[in-house]
Write a structure and sequence with these properties.
Organism: Rhizobium tropici
CATH topology: Protein Transport Mog1p, Chain A
Radius of gyration: 14 Å
Signal peptide: 1-20
Helix content: 10-25%
Number of helices: 3
Keywords: Kinase, Signal, Transferase
Protein name: Histidine kinase
Strand content: over 45%
CATH architecture: 3-Layer(aba) Sandwich
GO molecular function, one term: kinase activity
Length: 164
Amino acid sequence: MKKLIALALLALTSPLTAQAATLTFPGDKPVASITIPDSWKPEETDGGVQGTSADSAVYLSAEAANGKSMEKVVTGAIDFLAKNKVTIDPSTQKETPTTDVNGMQMATLEWDGKDEDGPVSVGLLIVQVSADNALVVTYWGDKGEEDKHDAEVKAIVASIKPVE
């Protein structure tokens, strides 16, 4: 797990367009906020938030974790993908070097895979929002269609900020 946290996401700088909801999570003791376009129908989950692009080509979720729950949250994200019949090709795994975004260390792992509709891209991002807390961001998108949402996904990830 520490290796995942040590990895990073690309520096993302893209403004959000249209209206968007800024959500803090988890609800009881927020550790982070994220802005998701209204067209993605953002909603709170037990430990985070989720949304799907208007054309259902891209799904994104973010869940809060601490040192004790990190493994459980990552396992839950992988189980969620499996439950939705998303398979990952382990031989395609890509890691991105550590990057600082909004003052936080970010890491990403990406894979090619498939779901019931065909080829997909899958990503798992670890965002270190404080010394004790991180976010696990999971996304998957239809190959080809996901590119249409690249700016939105980058803006969503770039919107993540720690709550102090």
